[in-house]
TrEMBL record:
GO terms for molecular function: transmembrane transporter activity. InterPro entries: MFS (IPR011701), MFS_dom (IPR020846), MFS_trans_sf (IPR036259). PANTHER family: C-METHYLTRANSFERASE, MAJOR FACILITATOR SUPERFAMILY TRANSPORTER. It comes from the Bacteria. The keyword Transport does not apply. Residues 1-390 form the Major facilitator superfamily (MFS) profile domain. This is MFS family permease.
Amino acid sequence: MINGIFNLPRNIWLIGLISLCNDSASEMLYPVIPLYLSSVLMAGPRALGVIEGIAEATASLLKLFSGVIMDRTRSAKPWIILGYSLAGFGRPLIAFAGSWGWLLLIRFADRVGKGLRTSPRDALLASCAAPGQRGLAFGLHRAMDNAGAVIGPLLAFALLSWKVPLEHIFLLAVVPALICLFLSLKIQEAAPARPVAKHVTFDWRLGDMPPVFKKYLVVVAIFTLGNSSNMFLLLRAREVGMPSEYVPLLWAAVSAVAMIFSVPLAALSDKIGRITVLLCGYTAYGIFYFGVSAIDNSTNMLFLLFGFYGLFMGATEGVEKALVVDLVAEDRRGTAFGWFNLTAGLFLLPASIVFGFLYQGISPACAFVFSGSCAIAAALLLAFFVGNRRASCTCPPR
């Protein structure tokens, strides 16, 4: 596996480094936003649910658009540059937000950037990796992404411990944005294998996709309905007694577990099948959420439970995308990633809003039990509805 990692193409490493830098900034701010929302903007869980749900759902619409355009033009680099730049240079503006409405607008811009870059980036990753290395390639990307998610919260922990004002922390995010722009310009794309049509048609159809891929999208939808914004986890950690400066440290621990296990678990999916690994990941998610529903004033138990969440991330983030590549034809990968991301993102809107209302309107335990139940339901559907445990049916180009 080690030799395979270092033999991966240059573009895969470049994209991984870009994700590392971008997530260092994003995750430095991510644990701080709930604190900023509650202590400075005076808003609660419902506002948080609306902000995250709308931002993520809007991004998903653009993921479909950019994925389709990627298939038509065979060019990912412009979308990668634009997407990372829009998100990176937008985040520092949170320092000037005077209400949660302005925070919603800035988070919206951040997610627009994600929507424009994600599907083309994933399609480029798939095209650079050999069929037997797809899990490894996506696993390496997620590991580097999660490495950034370790660095970012540690920076936030240090800055909060040094009593740096929240506004100044947001402004510091401009530095990694500049690094991401520089690295994005270094990406090299091969010439398309077939001529690009002069008159591009916007072909977003799902009807001609393989039936097994459509079933997989149903599973993704059910799981995502219970996969609300991670900010609720950080909010809950603070409520059960975790000191504010330790909340980013807790999230860094999650990302560290995900970083460590992303590559071996994704590489394992190349051998034993994507669905087997995904079943383990969905089960870990359910255990985590059921555990958090019962926790009360035990910060030590929080660290143990959040380790399960890191295992879930390591077992699913790269493997889910590698499974998309396995199930569709090569010339439809961008569109397939668009539908995958659209499905996940659209269901994040009701997921975050429902979770926020259950959390504030009934009880936090009720909200966490709901999410855990969705994960178990998705695991059962994945096993019996999609069915092919090895899921290595790579479709030939049409």
